[in-house]
Every structure is written in structure tokens, then in C-alpha cells.
Design goal:
Aminotrans_V_PyrdxlP_BS, seven-stranded mixed beta sheet, transferase, four-stranded antiparallel beta sheet, aminotransferase, Aminotrans_V_dom, PyrdxlP-dep_Trfase
Length: 390
């Protein structure tokens, strides 16, 4: 399959107004997603929230099937939650920690994950250990294997870091985890929607993702995959009458599927929109999406590297749609502001979002341009032309 760029741009009204290269922040949604969300909100307006939810039950339930198909899971292994951080937290804080447990993670971890690691380390006397990188800048699978012992409770790795195009070797990490019998939590916030992600091939026990980034879903949506093989060992850090049943005056029973990680009240319109976004991606073909996104990103890296005074900072043998760079003599925030004035959307990755990686590489803040399949080479030209003079 190949992407019909004209069609997907026609489905994306924002393409008429801006060159959007901030898809790692929040993509431009296709009109099908926006219409699904607005249609449900209008239904709530007409008949009431509870009544609208009942009338649209088939549409909201479709989201479980669509998301499961997107990542190679079964629908009872999917929980729909408010965002990727909540999905990741619900998984991480469900693990039963004890003093001396070890968490193995990557140098490229995102701040929210690192803060959670440090909180659990402080609270339960758990050790957090960063696995060294290999020669390409990805997590070293050999080093990870050498660090495994009976005290390792969790391997938690970000698939695609927020601050660069690196893709960590998730399937190889999964093989080490399965061999050692260690729980593997994969943060796929930046990979779902731009890369083909299959939880069976990767071998992760838990995976968190968001709707708003490369999946092109609504903000305020996300999901958690929890494998059946680990589900019964995890009790979420908080429960309600949706996640569990109050069985007697002094007892409760946690539900038997991944929806134990949800709560009763939710964004129904957003849930429906998330399903539409997943179906939209599936209709295009995940391999076709990955091919176009990674190809555009490599083209952009080449064009930027050819400009005097511009340095591209992406690492990894395998790279994705996120491109990070600096311009000599210019603060990254000033570069982003200049691009914004030319109607080119990018973002800035700051050291505070990935301190272990920024400090190890002595990096300043980076300009982050993240492409999607609806972008064109003309969009890349617009970015390069709008950069400040070096």
C-alpha cells in the first residue's frame, strides 16, 4: 500500500492553514475524527450525556476493537484512559514493590517516567538503574542482559524518546524480558501511529500510548495494553465501581479484564474519536504510514544537515519521524518562534524533559520537527527556508 497524499491532505483541513511539523506534540486530526467528536457532543446537547452514551454504545465499543487491532492485542487487553501518562502510571503503580527491587530503564526516558521511578525508589527503597547505550545511541541489549538478576522487578523503556528520532529495539528488549521472566513496560506514546507496533512481536507485558500525537486522535484520550499473562497480578492504584464490583459490605472484586485500569466517568466523544482515528490509520496501512513518515524524516535530516550552521542530533540505527536540530548562534526557542511566525509549527525539547540524555550528551535545548504522512517535501522546504541565517 502507498499513501494517497492528496486524499489525506484533503481529509486534513489544517493543511490549508499551516505547515504542521509538530506531530510529536499533537497532530492535525482528520476531519473524520473531528466530525465524530462533534457529532457526539451535539447528541449530548440534544438528548443528555447518559442517553447519548447509551445510544452510541456500539461506536464507543468499536474503539476497543480498533485499538486492539492497531497494536496486535485482543479487546479485553485494552483500557481506554485520559492520556498516555495516566495509562503508564496506572500500570507502573500497580506493581507490588518491595525494598531491593530494581528498575532497569533507558537513558532516553521522559521526565514523567523518571519522576515516577524516583518516587517509588524513595518510597519503597527501590533502585533505578539506567542501562548504557550501544554505539548508535540506542539502549544496549547486551548491557541489559548483563544487568539482569533476580532482583529486577521491571524493565521500563520508552520506545521513541521525545527528544529525537531514535527508535529503541523494543522486540529485542522484550526477548530479554521474557527470557528472564521480568515484567516489561513499553512507553509507546511517540511510536503508535507512526510505526507498526505489535505487542505480540515486541513481547511487552504493558504498553501505554496517547491519541493526540501520531495517531491523530482527540486530546484527552489514551490507552493501556495489559497482557492477560500479567493481568491478575496487578491491582490498580485506585478503583471505582467500574474497575471493581462492591460484592458485600466489606469486600470487592476487581474486574477480570484490562478495564480494571479505567474509571467510570470518561470522555465518550473522545473515546469515539479515538476509535475513528485508529480505524483511519488501519485503513491507510501501518507499514505504508511508517514508510512515508520515516522517508520524509530522512529527507528532512539530509536537507538540514546540508545547511551551514545547522546540526542534526538524532541517534539510533533505526530512526523515525522525529527530527531534532540546533542552529548555531540561535536559541532553540527563538528558532521555533521564527518558524511559527512563518506558519511552520515545530516545538522545543528542553533538558528538563529528558535530563539523563541531555546531560550525558551535553545538549542544549533542541528544535523538534516531527513529520507525518500528510506532510510534503514542500513543507520541508518551507521549514528550511524560514530558518534564521547562520
Amino acid at each position: 500500500m502507498t499513501i494517497d497524499v492528496g486524499r489525506v491532505r484533503a481529509d486534513t483541513p489544517g493543511c490549508e492553514h499551516v505547515v504542521h511539523l509538530n506531530n510529536a506534540g499533537s497532530s492535525l486530526p482528520p476531519r473524520q475524527v473531528t466530525e465524530a467528536v462533534v457529532d457526539h457532543l451535539r447528541l449530548e446537547e440534544r438528548v443528555g450525556g447518559y442517553e447519548a452514551a447509551a445510544a452510541a454504545l456500539d461506536r464507543s465499543e468499536r474503539t476497543y476493537d480498533a485499538v486492539a487491532e492497531l497494536v496486535g492485542a485482543d479487546r479485553d487487553e485494552i483500557a481506554l484512559v485520559e492520556n498516555a501518562t495516566r495509562a503508564w502510571d496506572m500500570a507502573f503503580y500497580s506493581l507490588p514493590w518491595k525494598p531491593g527491587d530494581r528498575i532497569l530503564t533507558s537513558r532516553a526516558e521522559y521526565a514523567s517516567n523518571a519522576i515516577a521511578f524516583l518516587q517509588i525508589a524513595r518510597r519503597h527503597d527501590v533502585r533505578v538503574e539506567v542501562v548504557p547505550d550501544d554505539e548508535t545511541g540506542a539502549l544496549s541489549v547486551e548491557a541489559l542482559r548483563d544487568m539482569i538478576d533476580e532482583r529486577v522487578k521491571l524493565i521500563a523503556v520508552t520506545h521513541v524518546p521525545t527528544q529525537g528520532g531514535l527508535v529503541n529495539p523494543a522486540a529485542e528488549i522484550g526477548a530479554v524480558a521474557r527470557e528472564a521472566g521480568v515484567t516489561f513496560l513499553l512507553d509507546a506514546c511517540q511510536s503508535v501511529g507512526q510505526l507498526r507496533v505489535d505487542v505480540r512481536e515486541i513481547g511487552c507485558d504493558l504498553l501505554s500510548a496517547t491519541g493526540r500525537k501520531f495517531l491523530r486522535g482527540p486530546r484527552g484520550t489514551g490507552f493501556l495494553y495489559c497482557s492477560r499473562r500479567i493481568l491478575d497480578r496487578l491491582e490498580p492504584p485506585f478503583l471505582d465501581l467500574h474497575a471493581a464490583t462492591w460484592t458485600s459490605a466489606d469486600s470487592y472484586e476487581v474486574r477480570g479484564d484490562a478495564r480494571r485500569f479505567e474509571n467510570w466517568e470518561g470522555y465518550v466523544a473522545g473515546k469515539i474519536g479515538l476509535g475513528v482515528a485508529a480505524d483511519y490509520a488501519l485503513s491507510l496501512g501501518l507499514d505504508a504510514i511508517e514508510e512515508r513518515v520515516t522517508g520524509l524524516a530522512e529527507t528532512l535530516r539530509g536537507r538540514l544537515a546540508a545547511l551551514p550552521g545547522v546540526t542534526v542530533h538524532d541517534q539510533g540505527a533505526r530512526r523515525c519521524g522525529i527530527v531534532t536540530f540546533t542552529v548555531d548562534g540561535h536559541d532553540s526557542r527563538d528558532v521555533a518562534a521564527r518558524l511559527s511566525a512563518s506558519k511552520v509549527n515545530v516545538s522545543v525539547s528542553a533538558a528538563s524533559s529528558a535530563r539523563w540524555d541531555f546531560e550525558a550528551r551535553a545538549l542544549p535545548s533542541l528544535v523538534r520537527a516531527s513529520v507525518h504522512y500528510y506532510n510534503t517535501e514542500e513543507d520541508l522546504d518551507r521549514l528550511c527556508e524560514a530558518l534564521p541565517s547562520r
